[in-house]
Amino acid sequence: MIDKLLNPWIRELVPYSSARSEFSGKAEILLDANESWDGGNDGINRYPDPLAGELRKEIERVMGIPYEMTAIGNGSDEVIDLLIRMFCAQGKDSVMIERPTYGTYSVFAHISGVSVIDVPLTKSLDLDDKAMLSAIRERKPGIVFICSPNNPTGRVYSLDRILAIAEANEGITVVDEAYCDFSEDFRSAIPAIKDNPRIVVLRTFSKAYGKAGARLGILVADPRIQQVFMKVKPPYNISRPAEESGLEALRNIEKVRAHVQETIERRRDFSSFLGTLSYVQEVFSSEANFVLARVSDAKALYSYLLKRGIVVRNRSNDPLLENTLRITIGSEQEMEALKEAMYGWQG
Ligand code: PMP
User: Fold this and answer.
1) Rg (Cα) of the chain, in Å, rounded?
2) Is 212 in the pocket of ligand 1 (CB under 6 A)?
């Protein structure tokens, strides 16, 4: 079943066998990987663990996701890229995305010579399941990407509807849950993987866990897909400092939870503030660590803020998002500075 969905050259791939994976047991003297013998005392002269095993065990302990269902990418961006290369053939297959959504799904598809089917969201920025189901039936995409909470809208889609789409889709459905920690009462697609192994979930350390600079994305998938991913990914894609950074976050999960709670409260406060500004026409209800707002003139406000040293994201070029800015929730001082600047703008 999964086998049939894979590109044939991936199915038959003989993976690179790294030095350290060719022996088992304990060894004192490692002369197998052409590393430097001079490591100081941080061990960084050694290649990192290709399995990122310590981090995955900690993910199982803290997040409850079974070890054999996870793999780590150099950011979820690498996972997105590799999934497309695993399941879609150049010049032949397509991926399906909703618009507006996170930008790299389509960029990685284009880099791989895979076409992109765009299905616009409804006017209220919800999934248009009817249109998606008919596009799936007609075009048979290799992968359907669904981002929930969606970037840049902050909207969580109904899990039942996501699962119904995944059921109808004979290919892979990737549910990107990068922002899920900021959603209260979030229902993940992960438990559905055991009934529908064509569902793949993405998580990341870049948002709630505060480790964007470490580049750590999590693939959560049926073990058969996980095993293929492990063959396809570059052998040493996760550096040891990156793995340690992820471990640090998980071992201090209370700190992460407090950060999330603070961010949610600040998001609430900032959304209400936006509602009081006369030039703000719409504040989209967000379950992520950002807020999207429609203003009288997004370009002018963007430039005004930039002159005050504040960078936000102008999303006005996305379909359905004329005159919108996406604003990340920052620290208390950052938000105070932003509010003061926004208060002073004569939209
Ligand atoms: N998915 C979504 C929805 C995102 O918004 C982002 C980054 N902004 C990513 C994935 C990429 O995350 P990472 O840093 O793990 O590559």
Assistant:
1) 22
2) yes
In one letter, which amino acid is 204? T
Decide if 85 contacts 77 (C-beta within 8 A): no
Asked if 215 and 50 count as a contact pair (C-beta separation under 8 A), the reply is: no
176 lines ligand 1 (CB under 6 A): yes
Strands 324-328 and 290-295: antiparallel
Q: Whose CA is nearest to atom 16 of ligand 1?
A: 75
Cα angle 163, 63, 329; round to 5: 80
- Report pLDDT for 26: 86
CA distance 81 to 64: 26
Q: Per-block average pLDDT, block size 10, for the chain (347 residues)?
A: 95 89 85 90 91 98 98 98 98 98 98 98 97 98 98 98 98 98 97 98 98 98 98 97 98 98 98 97 98 98 98 96 98 98 92
The verdict on the CB of residue 77 being under 6 Å from ligand 1 is: yes
| pTM for this model (two decimals) | 0.97
Dist. CA 193 → ligand 1 center (Å): 21
Residue 204 Cα to ligand 1 midpoint, Å, equals 7
